[in-house]
Amino acid sequence: MTTLTVEECWALLQQESVGRLGYRLVDELHVVPVNYVVRDDVVLVATGEGNKLLASELHAEAALEIDDLRGEEAWSVLVRGRLQHVEEGPAEAFADVATVSWLPTFKYDVIQLVPAAVTGRRFEVHRPR
Amino acid sequence: MTTLTVEECWALLQQESVGRLGYRLVDELHVVPVNYVVRDDVVLVATGEGNKLLASELHAEAALEIDDLRGEEAWSVLVRGRLQHVEEGPAEAFADVATVSWLPTFKYDVIQLVPAAVTGRRFEVHRPR
C-alpha cells in the first residue's frame, strides 16, 4: 500500500467528477453519491433543498471520498473538512457545478467542502475468484 | 426519484460486496471503500489494526453506502448505525468475511455495523455529453 502525495490527490480530484460525500447532520451520519467540481482547492457540489443544504448551513463535518477499484491497482482519496453554503458570487460562476449533476432534481444552491486534510492511497487488489 | 423499501435495500445489500464506509473517529469523519458481508441483518467488515478497529471499540457512528451509478437508472442504499468490534464466536464463523477482502493487509478482526436505519432510492441519471 502506497500513500499518495497531496499533489497526486488533487490531480485525481481534478480528474474525477463523482464521489461519495459523507456528512454529519446533527447526530446522523450520511454518505451519498455526488457530482462535484474542484475549484481553487475547494470541492463544489450543486444541491437543492434537503439534508446536504441544511448540513452546509450548520457547517457540518464532511468528507468527500473518490476511488477507482476496477483495476488490479486501486486507489482512494479522502478530503476531510466542513461544509459551507456558497451564497456569494454570480450564479453563472457556478454554472459548471450545476451542469455536471446527473440527478434530475432542482439544484439552485452550491455548497462547498473546505478541506482541512487531503489524503490518499494506492493499493493492489486481490479479488476472490 | 423513487424511495426503496427496506426489503429492496437489504436485497441490494445482500447482492453487493463493496461499499463505502463512513465513520466518525473522535472528531474526524472518514469514508473508505470496504468489502463487506451481510449476515442476520448486520453488516460485517474484516479489518486490521487501524482507524476502523479503533472506531469499532469506541462504538462510533457509522454508515455504509452502496450504489450503482453506471446505468441510466441508478440507485443508492445507506445503512446508518454504530460500529462494534466482534469479539465473540469462533474465527471460522467469519472466514467468509475475511476472504471477500481485496486488500492484501492482515485482517484478524471483524467489525460490525449494527443498523439503526436503512434507506435507499432509485433515480434516473442524465449525464452531460
The most extensive interface between chains reads: A-B, 36 and 36 residues
Spatial separation of the terminal alpha carbons of chain A: 22 Å
Describe the oligomeric state of these chains in a short phrase. Answer: homodimer
What CATH architecture of chain A would you give? Roll
Overall domain count of chain A:
1
Rg over CA atoms of chain A = 15 Å
Largest sheet of chain A at a glance? Answer: 8 strands, antiparallel
Question: What is the beta-strand fraction of chain A?
Answer: over 45%
The CATH superfamily of chain A appears as Electron Transport, Fmn-binding Protein, Chain A
Number of strand segments of chain A: 8
pLDDT average of chain A, as an integer? 88
Measured as a percent range, the helix fraction of chain A is: 10-25%
The CATH topology of chain A is what?
A: Pnp Oxidase, Chain A
Pfam families (chains A, B): Pyridox_ox_2
InterPro entries (chains A, B): Pyridox_Oxase-rel, Split_barrel_FMN-bd
Protein name (chains A, B): Pyridoxamine 5'-phosphate oxidase family protein
Organism (chains A, B): Nocardioides aquiterrae
Describe the structure.
- 2 copies of one chain form a homodimer.
- With 129 residues, chain A is α+β, with helices and mostly antiparallel strands.
- Chain A has one domain: Electron Transport, Fmn-binding Protein, Chain A (Pnp Oxidase, Chain A), CATH 2.30.110.10.
- Chain A has 3 helices and 8 strands; from the N terminus they run E-H-E-E-E-E-H-E-E-H-E.
- In chain A, strands 1, 2, 3, 4, 5, 6, 7 and 8 form an 8-stranded antiparallel sheet that branches.
- The longest helix of chain A has 10 residues, at 6-15.
- The two termini of chain A are 22 Å apart.
- The model of chain A has no long low-confidence stretch (mean pLDDT 88).
- The A-B interface holds A 1, 18, 20, 22-24, 27-33, 61-65, 67, 69, 74, 76, 78, 80, 99-100, 102-105, 123-128 and B 1, 18, 20, 22-24, 27-33, 61-65, 67, 69, 74, 76, 78, 80, 99-100, 102-105, 123-128.
- Chains A, B: This is Pyridoxamine 5'-phosphate oxidase family protein.
- Chains A, B: InterPro entries: Pyridox_Oxase-rel, Split_barrel_FMN-bd.
